Amino acid sequence: MSDPKPTYLSDYRPPAYRVTHTELTFDLDAKATRVKARLHMERHPQAKNGAALELDGERLTLISIAIDGQPLGEDEYSVDAERLIIESVPQTFLLDTEVEISPASNTALSGLYQSSGMFCTQCEAEGFRRITFYPDRPDVMATFSTTVIGSATTEPVLLANGNPVERGSLPEGRHFVTWDDPHPKPSYLFALVAGDLEKVEDRFTTASGREVTLQIWVEEENLGKTDHAMASLKRAMRWDEHAYGREYDLDLFMIVAVNDFNMGAMENKGLNIFNSAAVLTHPHTATDVAFQRVESIVAHEYFHNWSGNRVTCRDWFQLSLKEGFTVFRDQCFSADTNSAPVKRIEDVSFFRTAQFAEDAGPTAHPIRPDHYIEIGNFYTLTIYEKGAEVVRMLSNLVGPEAFRRGSDLYFERFDGQAVTIEDFVACMQEASGIDLSQFMLWYSQAGTPEIDAHGEYDYANGDYRLILRQRTPATPGQYDKQALHIPVRLGLVGTKSGRDLPLTLDGESLGSDTVIHLREEEQEFVFTDVSEAPVPSLLRGFSAPVKLRFPYGREDLAFLLANDSDGFNRWDAGQRLAMLALDDLIAAHRNGVEKVMDTRVVEAFRHLLNAEIDDRAVLAEMLTLPSEAYIAEQQPLVDVDAIHAARNFVKQRLATALRDDFLRLYKANDSDAPYAPDPDQIAARGLKNVALSYLMAIEDEDAIELARKQFAADHNMTDVRHALTLLTHSSRDDIAEPALKAFGEKWAHDPLVMDQWFAIQVTRPQPDVLDRVAFLMKHPAFSLKNPNKVRALIGTFAGQNRVNFHRLDGAGYRLLADVVIELNRLNPEIAARLITPLTRWARFDETRQDLMKAELERIRAEELSPNVFEVVEKALA
Length: 877
Ligand code: B3K
Ligand code: ZN
What we know:
It contains 28 helices and 33 strands. By secondary structure, the protein is α+β, with helices and mostly antiparallel strands. Among the domains are: 7-196, Immunoglobulin-like (Sandwich); 311-444, Orthogonal Bundle (Neutral Protease, domain 2); 450-544, Sandwich (Immunoglobulin-like), CATH 2.60.40; 747-877, Zincin-like fold, CATH 1.25.50. It has an eight-stranded mixed sheet, with no helix packed on it. α3 (319-337) runs antiparallel to α4 (340-359) and α15 runs antiparallel to α16 (679-698). It is globular, with a radius of gyration of 28 Å. The structure holds (3S)-3,7-diaminoheptanoic acid (B3K) and zinc ion.
């Protein structure tokens, strides 16, 4: 096999032929589905006369082909593994093809496949070409009419995009439904579902009075788990009307839950297909985190109806055009629905851990990459989350009114079109009159910019001089970086008053909280009339996706933690303070020196535990130490054992010193009110469970008893899972083992709960965990063919059990590589994602580097899918 070739953005050409209307007929069969396609085609006005017609197609058996009703002779077309070419076609014509495909043997879960006996599709990005021959690219938009034929007994429900227009029975126990989708769409938004499903139905009236039927389709046993998704959907529909003036545009909106799905969900027009984990919830089976995730994913997919479907991407390099924007939209929706500061804290702490790591590794890429081998590898944190941060910066730069004018303009101007990132930014520029040309660099330049900040207060004349220096480190293929346009939101907090001081810059008074624009490599900002010595509060709300360094002393950080008016930066000051203490302890551990706890951290925590803080959800975040992964991101060289030891040490010391405060916090937030996923209850459970984590760090009898009782009370999954996790991760196997066994037996029938059962066990810090992973891989509830299982067991182990994955004998790495090698054949998209932790080898000591590289080499020696090939090549480059 020759190495797969990259696709380049600079090679983009408009399609020579477009499809105005697509008629499809599926005659479903597990091993031999027949797909008939009639494509209404015409030559693009700019294409040259006589251009050949090229259609994408993979794993298709061609049965027949005709143009304008005339079957083609074998010399009139050619087919290879990737495409069908017809040398000569008229200017406008009808193309008829019939192909055969095998959904049952489709383990890649791309195209038409089977999941728990039902048929379903996943076409983004390039799955439609596994269904029929087609110009499978997003800039070809057509209306679709789809007829699905299936067995009336095994597939009583037959769904596709749009509105059902005809149904009827056929001989031999078959039946059909025909669906019409009047909105032109690219093939990646095509969807079909057929199976024995039940529905929950509701209604929504749009702002302009359109009556929409809402349906969530699930397997019968899951009928009781759709309430939250339905409520979230209605909230999202209303929110999009208010926040963006966007209404739903069909009479029917459907969500289907499937068990085998590569991603969270998919925004197919009118027929969203969801990973069951991203839609099903019940107080007894899903945690608060899962409830919130469902709400945000339901909203995200719904929001795509405009940002993605009505206005789509010209080519896949523009992926962040729809994903970054839609993530930004779902983040704002969740912030409005729940606690806004907590939403920001959660998003940023995830971002700084995972996206920063991606940016610092061998797969770093710009938000708009300029080439790829496999687009399936580019559904990344950079495209999604950094893309969202860039849209957030834009909205802050132009301000909310201009941003809304800009988005209105974008949706109106480009409705029904496939466009580029420039088109989006141009609308923002037009609506605001602000020059965004330097800002465009954010889309093409990879890597995390670093800002070094220094400040000096002049007591004599009351000036505060702030110097900012920016630098973006080199990333693979991009060695010279240019200065970016970086919005830095800040305040100066008076050390005497504890208040934000009025800001005057260049004679202009700017209130007490403002955004300064860093555009040069180095820039100086002199604030005048500063009445007292301040501590600067910089990058408030994480106003740009950068690393900001400022030489804060520990007193400064404790001061900001207590006084900053920006909730996000208060939290961040606490994290920075904890990091300074952790750095010392990591060094002590490495040098074999006795560890000494920084009492300023203890006092800061004591203050938090006794202060009047009205946002309890923020308090829970403030009491949470940076994760091991986040700490690792801050180190020049990652020492997993030292990080683990240092973090545990801090936890234990805090717990010992503040035991009574934590106990009080636990009791004050314990409640037996019926479960609701509302912000108040979530905050209370968060605080209670943070307190329990600390108490369990010292494992005294009271703590064990609280955890045991919380598990046994079986009140809701958030509490049960947290208690079971703490017990399983403690030294008390005598309590943990029976609890795990009881839990596993009770929930053996529920795959989503079993995923949690796997995750709880494989994050155990005890060294026996590797045997447990191997053992659990043979458990009847595990299957390598199901992405949720792979993520819960293997992904969680490799990503979250840092001490054991990075074991010095290399057994953790070996296990991961073995799974990747097997999955490379079954499901390349999932296999390629799973390799991620191995690609980060450069961050570790030499012994671990060698072990990790050896496993990457072992993978490389296999016959690889393009997905795995691309990742491994980059990792070893
Ligand atoms: N657009 C889908 C992504 C599917 C990608 C599959 N390779 C989910 C989402 O972002 O909404
Ligand atoms: Zn999306």
